[in-house]
Amino acid sequence: xxxxxxxxxxxxxxxxxxxxxxxxxxxxxxxxxxxxxxxxxxxxxxxxxxxxxxxxxxxxxxxxxxxxxxxxxxxxxxxxxxxxxxxxxxxxxxxxxxxxxxxxxxxxxxxxxxxxxxxxxxxxxxxxxxxxxxxxxxxxxxxxxxxxxxxxxxxxxxxxxxxxxxxxxxxxxxxxxxxxxxxxxxxxxxxxxxxxxxxxxxxxxxxxxxxxxxxxxxxxxxxxxxxxxxxxxxxxxxxxxxxxxxxxxxxxxxxxxxxxxxxxxxxxxxxxxxxxxxxxxxxxxxxxxxxx
Length: 292
Hints:
Layout: H1 5-14, H2 20-37, E1 43-47, E2 55-59, E3 67-73, H3 92-100, E4 104-108, H4 120-135, E5 141-151, H5 153-164, E6 173-177, H6 189-195, H7 199-205, H8 208-213, E7 218-225, H9 228-243, E8 250-258, H10 261-264, H11 272-282
Parallel strand pairs: 3-4, 3-5, 5-6, 6-7, 7-8
Antiparallel strand pairs: 1-2, 2-4
């Protein structure tokens, strides 16, 4: 099912700006439907590291065995964000969506800027992957079928994981929704809270060259009403893959959505992104390391 016309009009009216009004508008738009679908995790606040933010929730279908692991990494401009819970559906909704579609959903928190800067996000995701390798099978997941999926700052962290782990990735696929990869300078105040103020150092922090070369299958998308910067990051990623002679990411520009609704509508009656993601996961081989 496509996007309901009323939702399309409401999101178009919110415009392309990222701010509290747009975020609240999107959450209000999907609140009733997402709350109706909310379920509690089968495992809550499991520690994958020693820091209080290094916690994850796990959602699994009954009787799961050998299911793909869909790991959701929230956004928040590197400064904020939360995995949610039964009452606060944003981000928790992605774990519930995964479980409803035969996967084991894993929704993570990670350490935040400015206390924790680059490459803390990649380090946290490496710790999540290690935790899943040790514990996922007990909850019905296949450690050789881990998919890291991030939105906004979360997508930047997934991309940085691929950069950090280049050549030894322990995941089967990566999903990048409206992320930052270093196509444009890290000039926003939120960028600098995470990447620091030293412009000369930013080139080594950018993940674009690693994304251009990675053998991990990629799903990448942005939205029709994303700010131009995020659309330019998406276009730059496509160009970099093409220039490197690598397969292009599947995904695309999702019509009718903005920066927030691209993530928060997942699991609703608008199934375009959902169906594309499920098709992507269904076509993945086991993780690269497990097939060598």
